[in-house]
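Recap quiz, item 2
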Amino acid sequence: MRDCVRFLLGDELKEIRNVDPTMTVLDWLRLSERKTGTKEGCAEGDCGACTVVVGRLDGDAIRYEAVNACIRFVATLDGCQVLTVEHLKTADGELHPVQQAMVDCHGSQCGFCTPGFVMSMFALYHNDPSPTPAGIDDALAGNLCRCTGYTPIAAASQRMYELADPASDRFAHARTAIAEGLKALRDDETLRVGEGNRVFYAPATLEAFATLLVENPEARIVSGATDVGLWVTKFQRVLDTVIYTGRVQGYRDITDTGDTLEIGAGATYTDIQAPISALYPDFGELIRRIGGLQVRNVGTIGGNIANGSPIGDSPPALIAIGATLVLRSASGRRSMPIEEFFIDYGKQDRRPDEFVEKVILPKPAPDARFRAYKITKRFDQDISAVCAAFSIRLDNGTVTEARIAFGGMAATPKRAPLAEQALTGRPWTEATVRDAMAALRSDFTPLTDWRASSGYRMTVAANLLMKMYVETTDPDADTRLVGDRRLVHA
Amino acid sequence: MPDSTPIATAERITGGVHVDRRHDSAHKHVTGEAVYIDDIREPAGLLHVYLGLSDRPHAKLLSLDLSKVKSAPGVVRVLTSADIPGTNDVSCMGRHDEPLFADDLIEYAGQPLFAVAAETREQARRAARLAVAEYEDLDPVLTTAKARETGTVVFPPMTLKRGDAAEAIASAPRRLEGRIAIGGQDHFYLEGQIAMAVPGEDDEVLVHSSTQHPSEVQHIVAHVLSIPANAVSIEVRRMGGAFGGKETQANLFAATAALVAKKTGRAAKLRPDRDDDMVITGKRHDFEVDYSVGFDDEGRIKGVDFLFAARCGFAADLSGPVTDRALFHCDNTYFYEAVHAQSLPLKTNTVSNTAFRGFGGPQGMVAAERIIEEIAYAVGKDPLEIRKLNFYGEAGRDVTPYHQTVEDNIAPELVADLEARSDYQARRAAIREHNAKGGYLRKGIALTPVKFGISFTATQYNQAGALVHVYTDGSVHLNHGGTEMGQGLYVKVAQVVAEEFQIDIDKVRITATTTGKVPNTSATAASSGADLNGKAAQVAAHTIKERLIGFAVENWGVPREQVVFLPNRVRIGNQEIPFADLVRTAYMARIQLSSTGFYKTPEIHWDRTAGSGKPFYYFSYGAAAAEVTVDTLTGEYRVDRVDILHDVGKSLNPALDRGQVEGGFVQGMGWLTMEELWWDQRGHLRTHAPSTYKIPACSDRPKIFNVHLLENSPNRKDTIYRSKAVGEPPLMLGMSVLHAISDAVASVAGYQRCPRIDPPATPEKVLAAIEAMLEQVSPP
């Protein structure tokens, strides 16, 4: 066991003992380090004012990711580098190209969101040498600005490349040295910090993870903390033992087995977006619309499942696809169709000593059609009012299998058995679809809340089935407002 | 005569008026060095303060057990209304209807009951949750509908009338009536409310407050502490956004921090989290507007009657002037031959609503545009045709409902210009063709105008002061009563001073707004910041300049006209000397190099009781054309293109003005589309954070966004360098999006009926409108 969190703040090594297990990066920066450039706007990972860039080892190279400092626990930085807005300017006062572009384009008004934007843009600058306009929107979706209307910020996100080539950036030059520095911090020890019953564990291996769970069955498993972080910052819940998964080797691996894609539960949304898009474009688009990039860089598919939220976006798609969930404990593994994991609101089929190890996606059958839709008030970085995923297999125009799953329609992510029944064995026609739309009304009794009324949820859920029908039968139909429309008729 | 400094001979100073100039804090914004109140290094021993809130919307507070709060770790002091030495009131209008801490009567869910001060913010925050309150629930009035039954108002209603509207409507060839519900809006400034108070000697206290209105905070703190105003200093260097949300709402936080500071003798800081901020602070008023209109077969309005019922919340706050301004803008750019408009500022058991960019004006204009749309569908024309038909015009068609003559109407030309620039007609035809093909994605287009009255309608607020010092090295210290919330006021006023002295702007030091330097200031609001403070600073600089000229005349024995301020130098007779040299020489001759400046807007007056006067010095104009695509299966939509032409007179700083136009548009679009406030049946706001309250994100801005400032259009009034106010008017350009969505929705029923979408036009509202249209065409 190691009892000291080690990470780089800029290029300065920090070694911290006895840190509070749920001290956030933001509070640590502002209160302990007096680095006040990073701002608190919402303390829930939705506004991006607290964005910092975390460099972590991906293999032997360093990868820069924008993350929300407000809901990330400082102990999770172990083995990483953190860059804040204070690091960008050179010692002699010269602005970084990202900063200069913001100044040139009048990208700040009140300036409070600006450090967060600068850091998101800095990550973009180093991750994508020539982003498309949509790519810029995506990189900035997790940063809210109330003053500018974003136009000058988006312009600055192009201008920064004109000012200097990212490859010539001093941070690019430093990457190798920083990577070496981080490699020196890498070990197989379990990290253990905290005192008394408030302990933060970060195991380095699956075996250690399983053992820790046996020893601490009450422990809270934390990955991206994109939900758990809010329990702390918003609800002031005191978490006792925390087991952080981010250091577990192999836990975020994605393996193509030929027939399936096996995704380690620790894989982030960012990790899975490309491989899943290649198989199920609509699922990929759904993942693109989970949170902002800062959330997708840390939130994991395992967390999204294990959390059991009725409005998590990956479960409906995984259910429709027919994914298998693998749970692991010190005493072995067990598997189940993923929909069986969700028992009731807040109740999942996981024993205290188990953790979600991986999820196995079958590759699409040639006769299958898959669609996923997310209904929100705002396209980017919003939580679903309704999330729908449909998988239909057709044989000569007849539906041989229908898997329909929704989020936001019940206490758990849930299939629609009556609607599925209305489709199965029948011709894939508008009449059949209308019958299924009617049946859907008996499958669900959705709630009314601030995201949508019960009536809207019901109507739009049914209409989405019609949308899928149109998309799979009329190749010329224009049906999408966002996302890559070329993929729709794949 | 000193000769040390080489004479600069530039043709033009840097940073004068009418040039693009970056925000004065731009470098500090992008490096994180700009200091907001929470970034100020805390004085030793600072206490952190948190508020304890009520759980009920309307109740008698039977008892409040604070023992657990007091004994919680780190807690130093707990304060309730009983601890207030002065008046338990933070109301801005002096109506004594807004207690700092509720004592026996709870009037909204989330109302502050007490404050707890602790060694750390975390401790204070935890302790605040430990209070045990006993309530006797009273019947809450949560909705406008219920408030209308009750009929209690927070402020006397106002009526505007000209002609006999009832008779004009009755005798008009066509008539219709309806109701539009218009949602509220949270400011969502990125920096939340915050105050840090530092106790001084005797009864003195310094408060760093994130406020648009330092003078009001000063007076509130003085009243709460029962000390004279001269003991209270309020300072604000910058706010992280405000939008009206810090015009009065800072009072409570500043007063609480000051109270703790004086009670404990320790500095005290109060920063609520985002959720508490959104629960405790007022929002844009939601309205229900009843309208009836009479018009002819062409669509010309003969008479109109409005009732503007606003959900004001539990106290008056600024609801009187806000609802007044709704009435002042119920005409938008249109002439009503006869008009009757009345406000109804209703009391409800919800948070007290407040100022928000546009200040009721936008709601008035949205109602006006609904009428235009109704008429258009009734007579079967493009709404744009109806707009043009009803524009203010020549004598006889140029008097507003408040009897002010519109003397500067440029709406017809501006709209014609935008119509051409945006290729509106051709695109509209193409959209009709696209929609005629059917399909689930429908397009819509709309071009909507804006006319916005500039001046505080409370005439006394139209005054401003400034303080300018010139130091002997030629550098200038500038201070004025305006506050910086991101709009670029500081740099604009600095540009004015630089221009007046003809010195480069980097010679002008911009300093924090503080009540000790410039007293009795107005809120930086009503778009008036640059108009008022620019003029006041110009006066101050001009006074010093006049003294320098007088000195030069005397000292060098030249006629007055031979003293000319050139860029960074002064020509005196046949010689040119650096500005700094003149200053230093003048100092040696004991010339006063410091001056205050004062300005009051001329011409304006307003008689609220009579509903008549000249409340506005001038009007700002603009127009926007929006094109959208609507998904008729889901109600979702996308803004494909927006063209804007906006009038800022002769711009002081075109780059910043463009920023105001773009940002205002997106904020207005957000208000009318995705931003939805949602209260549950217990009167609790459930959309109190960005996870639940959705303001536009980067990808929501128009895919194509062409923004132009109207050229060659100096203000006809003698404003500061003939510029026009720009803070609020662009917000209402967002109406174009609402109407474009409406246009797309109308296509599903062949444009036969007015869709009547009540904003915010969330996807849910849009789908409901589509379903309603389809039911009308083919009843089930």
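The domain at 254-362 of chain A is CATH 3.30.465.10 (Uridine Diphospho-n-acetylenolpyruvylglucosamine Reductase; domain 3).
The longest helix of chain A spans residues 454-473.
End of item.
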